[in-house]
Structures are given as C-alpha cells and as structure tokens.
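Objective 1b. Sequence-to-structure analysis of DNA methylase.
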Amino acid sequence: MQTMGLQTMSNIGGMAEEIVVGRGDPAYLAHAYLTKVPVPAITPFIEAYCPPGGVVVDPFAGSGMTGVAARITGRQVRLSDISVLGRHIGSNYLNMVEGHEFTSSAQAVIKRAKDAVGKIYEVPCSGCGGNGQLAKTVWSVLVRCAGCEKPVNYYHSLEAAEWSKPKMVCPHCSAHISSKLDRVGEQPVVDYVNCACSPTQREQPAVAAPSIDVDGLDFPHVEITPDREMYRASALGKSGYTTVASFYSPRNLRTLVALRDEIRAIEDRALSQKLLFAFTATLTRASKRYQWSHKRPLNAANQNYYIAPVFYEWNVFELFERKTTAVLKADDWIRTQAFTRNVDADTVPAEYVTESAAELSLPDASVDYVFTDPPFGSNLFYADMALFQEGWLDGFTDVGKEAVIDRSTGTKRTAGRYEALLTESLKQCRRILKPHGRISMVFGNSSGKIWAVVQRAVAAAGLRIEPEKIAILNKGQRSVKGLASGFEDVATLDLVLTMVPQDDAEASFQQPTAEAVAAATRELVGAAGPASPSHLYLELLRRALREGWSVADLDLQTATATLLDDGWSIDPKTGLLVEPE
C-alpha cells in the first residue's frame, strides 16, 4: 500500500508554498485565544512582503500575534480589533516588562491575596495527619438515574465499571448511567495534596470543600444569555451554567477576586496590566471547564462552554504563579528572536486600538503590508467566548460589529452581512496600502459557500489574489472527528491568500464541471508525499483559485467523494490518505 501526499515545499518568490509550524513557542503558550496564528508562521510573510522598518497593519488582530511578529522583525505595527479581550491580550504581548520587577510584584500580589483569603486551600493530609496544601480536586457531577431517579455520582459509577463507560450502572437499580442524564449536583471525589511528609503529591479521598459566602464578593455578575450562539451550542440552559461566576467553585471564585483586587492596587500601570494578563490566562484552567480523564487531564476547550461530568478544581495561586513565569518566558523569547535579527524588541513602535476593520482610522496609502486573520464564517464566536475573561476586565466586545455568521435562523448576522463586512474591511485595507504593497489573509473553512464569499469579497474590494503566492498554513492540527469517521468533515488547515490591488477586478468566475473537479482531485492525489483529506481539499481550493474557478460548490466532502469512489482510505493512526491496493 502506498501513502498519498503532495509536493508543496517548492519556493515561489522566496515564500514556501506550505508553512509548517508548531504551537509550542513561549509566546503562543503564554495566553490562550481562539485560532491564534503562531508567530513563526507570520514572520516569513512580513520579511518577504514588508521592507525593513516598514509599517505592518492587522485589522483583525485578535491576540496580537502579528504585532509580536512585526516587533521581532523590526517593523512598526498597528493592530486593531473590536474585541476587548483581544486588545487586552495583544497589548500585553507588546507590553514588555523588566523581569525582576515583575517577579517581585507577582510575589507581593500572591502574598497579599493569600493573607486576604486565609487557609482556603489547607486540607488534612491522610499520610501524617497534619495539614497540607491542596493542589487540585477532582469533582464529579451527580446525575439523576433514569430508572430509580436517585442521584448517582458519575465518577464512582465509572470507577465501579473499571473506567468503561458502556458498563456504567446505577448502584441502586442497575440502570445504565451516562453523561446525558440530568445533572442534579456536584461532589468532590479526589484531592491531590502537597505535604512536607511526602516528596510527591499525595492522592487521597476528597474532604468537604469549605463553605464560602460569595454573595458579597465583587466578582463578574455576567449572564451568558439565550441569544448567544454559544448558549445554545453548549446547552447552557440545560446545564444551568448561565453566568460566568457559575463556572467557578466558591473557593476559586473567592481567590480570583482577591488576586484581581491586589493586581488593581498596583500603581505601576505596565506591571499591573502585565499581571492582569497572567491573571486572565489562568481563568479557564481555574474553572470547571478543565476536563478530567482517567489517563491524563484533557484541558479545557476554548471554543465552547462545555463542563465534563468529571472536572478539576485547581489551586488558583499555583496556576497564577506558573502563568507569571510563562509570561516572562514569552517576553524573553520575543527579545531573543528579535536579537537574532539585530532588532531591539523594546524599541520597535507598536500600538493596539479598538476599532472595526470596516472603519479603519488610518490615512490613505500609509502602510506597507497587511497581514490578517479574519473570523472564519460560523466556525467560532469570539465575543461569546470572550465573556469568560471580559467579565473580569473593563468593557465588553460589541457583538453587533462581529464578522461572523450565526448558525441560528432569523438573526441579523447573516451570510450576506458577513460578506459585506469582509468586503468593506478589504476595501479599507486596499485604501491604506502604499503603492506596490500587499495584503495577506489567513482563511480556513470546509464549506465552498463560505470560500465563495471570500472569493467575491476579494474581487469586490478591488483586489486580485496572486495565484503563485497562495500558501498552505499547517499548524499541526487534526480532526479527531474525522479520524473516527474515516474522512474528515472539518478542514484542519488554512490557506494564506496574498493579494494586490487591481482596478478592474470582477467577481466573475468559471463554474468547473464535476469531471474537471474529479480530474484535478486525481491529479493532486497522485503527487508524492503524505497528506490528509484537509490537505487535499486545500490543494484543490488552491488549484481552483489559480484557475479562476468558482469555489462555491467545492466542499471538503466534495473533494473527498472522488477518493471514496476510487477506494482510497485513511490511516486511523496518522490521519493520512492511503491508496487502494
């Protein structure tokens, strides 16, 4: 059997056709944000298309990775976005602090917050009988048995079934137990304790969580309302987690309030904002969204509000201290990357403003290069997920300006509105571009209809995609859903489209025949090297864009249908396409 793949590493004008990057550098890891583009994926484009000392703009800046890449390469940068959370994160990546001062301030904040909350994480050690410090607690939901209607501890039921979900039964009536049953409560089941009597963390049965009155605390009284797409997608009405505060245990909510208050009290704004950056980076892990697994922790999904039937409650002080260390590592990494290019990262001009990409407040012909990563249609809802952090900040994103397509019918955020916003945003990018400047845009979707929106918006904005400069961005993602089904249903790679102004651009594209699409698919699949269905799909999209085809009917499923008919399969271990025998 032969494993199929594509030759995509030929250089065109100094830029590789495929950019392969990891997501493990210190800047990427310092703070989570939806669909971040790693800095090493952006720097080659800036160095190729922006002159040294030139000006880079990103109007959909999000977490500000374009700003970091521009600073590393010595280019001035101007970032903008409507996202309050995005500006908070992106501004603090650019807020470079002195390491010793930051560490001293962090330690002082932790000490004062600990004094304020008392012995909130102190628990008896089962080994020596003394007191230890709680590192984390495993919590289980209680579900209502469909047979006898009694509450059942999900974790204990799973444990009794020797960690096999199909074998889970009610201890009272032996009816089948699953995570889909109604949740009627939560219980701590396992504590992990640090104690002087043991060199390693001790695992022991959980003690009762302390009773903490949170009613008088200044925590985010923020509702996640039914009109939010993520309210419906995460079934918050059924789970009852309809406020930001409900995602935290009382113990962790009290600790987070104490830390936030101490950070606010710091007079040095740069240090205070950088500490708040570390604080917001801990919020998801400090919540009930951090999933437990019998084998290993599964972390929390940033794109939804799901709470697993078994979850962790982590010691917030330990999380925050670790994150402050990660923040300094990011600063050091940025400075080091800049130094290797003879750039002093601390002196490169950079700013982040809050404004819509469709209303840029920049002069005509004032920037050398635009690199941007707009929202991908209805894939993700940034403002909905940002509520979780923005509740702790000052202000909320204006969802009325968000460039997304609602999944629900009868709403104002339609595909037509999305196309209009994207078109106007690209027109603004064209307006501010200097002669001979370029615009690069990252985009990914498994729907041909959404790709057609992009295709039309580019032409309507008076831009032309440079066919020889279309690159694949490979961040090492894979679709678990796709591996289970045999062929992926979700594209896990992106294209980077580089564009130049063209006055006579028209939104007229040739409709390819089914035969032409099938022939192109077979030609691409015959290239050497490994590839996934997503990889093949983007190769087909790239071919279509280069040939001037309409991409409206080129869904991922369409691209793989020919291979299914020809007997191709997918290797379940690698996720790569395999030729039939």
